[in-house]
Task: structure prediction
Amino acid sequence: MAEEEMKLELRGVHKSFDGAAAVKGLDLALRKGEFLSLLGPSGCGKSTTLAMITGFLAPDSGEILVDGRVVNRIAPRKRRIGLVFQDYAVFSRLTVRANLVFGLESQGVARKERNLAVAEISEKLELRDILGARGGELNMSEMQRVALGRVLVTKPQLLLLDEPMSNLDAALRASLRSELKQIQKELEQTVLYVTHDQVEALSMSDRIAVMRDGALLQVGTPEDIYNRPVGRFVAQFIGDPPINIVPCRVEEAQGKLVVGTALHSGLGFAGRDVPIGDYLLAVRPHHLRASRAPREGTAECEIRMVENFGAEHVLHVTYGEDLVAVVTEPGFAREGERLHLSLDMDQAHLIDPLDERVVARRRREAAA
Amino acid sequence: MTEVAVESLSKSFGDLQALRGLDFDAAHGEFFCVIGPTNAGKSTLLKTIAGLHRPDGGRILLSGRDVTRAEPRHRNVSLLFQNIALFPTLSGRDNIAFPLRTVGTGEGEIARRVGEIAEVLKIGHLLDRLPQTFSGGEQQRVAIGRAIARPTDLLMLDEPLTNLDARIRIALRIEFKTLHHELGQTLIYVTHDQVEAMSMSDRIAVLNKGRFEQIGTPDEVYHRPASAFVARFIGQPPMNIVDAELSGGMDDPRLSGPGFSIPIGGIEQLESASRLPRKLAFGLRPEALRVAPGEGPDTPFAGEVVWIERLGGKSILDLRFAQGLVKAVVPTDHAVRREGPVWLGFTPRAEHLIDKESELFFR
Result:
């Protein structure tokens, strides 16, 4: 990828507070028109990273480039970055038009150009009919579009969104996700989206960068991150219900390496050769199969808890010393009943218990 | 034994009618969830039960005792507000112990109880620290610990998971349910998140503009919603509601529209079967919609996938067909994986027929 096509680059960006490293040598690049999510738990360094990109914090070392230009010493408002805050923060007493004009006025754009730019963006974001409405009168969809419009009207090289939906009703978030993604795609706007919500990251991103303790653990497409996590943390952070992790052992049987858990034995896998020993086995609740009657390769488990999600039920069942979750059709079984579980190694990941990295998985495409 | 009984409860603030005659019972040990959008009246309901608001009308009974006019401290209830405030100068341990000390619990018992709670909520590392060093999620967990420290007749939680990281929310959902099992305490849990309501509750009360739209088990509100409001609020993506006409008479009742005419199952079980109007609508859960790349007996209607939202294990398809836009949920490895023409099918059930005027399901 040619350098001039990168809208944002972080090169070895580092930041410490009182000797504690908050961001540890971050390398990341966003292509023009790309939607990249920075995903991680509270305190992982997402907000610090964002503050360095916007210029409100200076990195201790490393370079930040916007549209190919090093901006470390450039004032925040001259970086050509648009920032959308949590809850969208639309001025409730100003009209939509005044909200849209706000960013341009602060940049000293002449009135004629301002009007032109507002007309253009309100057309693109379907805000024309509500230009006279006040911020406080808007529904959430309109609010999101005004918040985006207010920033996009300045034609930023890069749009940053900082957990914009985290305080909104769950039902609203779903519709705002689709709308945001469609606007971004249509305008080919480069977006860095900061979130702790894996659903938002999976559903909108071209790529996801998973962050923990100030470092990036994995950068990849949503499909990569979901199906081919590099380690335990990424595997557990993505997916709802969370991935199951149980202890297992790799042994040799009849000249082949096989995996055994507390309840299943002789599970074949065709990953790379791994040393014989103790591992962790990670398998998503959607990839365990439950049946009412025993069959070859099934193990008996007791149902401890049922979570009813309407379209499907998640059963939490005993598995050796652990509980594992398995997804079933509604009404499949009740608390206290027993069921028979089979485990599909095709969908499982073998994790080294010490460094917590995935060492093998069956999926052929995974061979790294 | 009924632990909580609320009868015709109403409360206004000036012109705003926050609660418009609410009735419900919660049984001893029940996990009773009140769900609704912002401003439905959820928090007002909790505060009124706790005694922080005086109702304009109606009664509140706790364990059979009328507490409508009782002082909050005489009600033996605990309420965790959405915006929690820990005591900033007390450690995590002393915050949790606070309600126990106010009723003179012995220090040995306090230590045991705090230890138990810390283990369940995974906050052992916070016990000897001050709240200013906690993250938002940690503050919330300590506040939950404080709310459950003293066993009361009734525990009320107002959106306890709302401001937490998504990951912690998922973990706490399961822990809450386990905790509730163990405590056996009657719980009224307020949320706007249908996932929390569905997965944890014994019963769900759907609140809209100060009135209950429906009170029922998770299965009832999901599979037999009373109103379009409930159908749209419970389930994600929400139930599709599609316009249609009734045809074929009672011998062969069919749902018809441009390009489709399908038999309706179970119509004889409707009390209102003989009074159904010709024009109505029907509800269709996204997972009940069949989608295939080609035409077939199960997928006879032409449509188009206009947008796909991929969520890891499953995808949400936005589909256009003769009757408008609908959403379907399919596994990610489903045969339909990209935008373009597809074929659809569905099997309407009588209990999902909706009166277009009242937006109520026919019963």
Notes: Chain A has two domains: 3-232, 237-366. The first strand of chain A starts at residue 6 and ends at 17. Confidence is low (pLDDT under 50) at residues 364-368 of chain A.
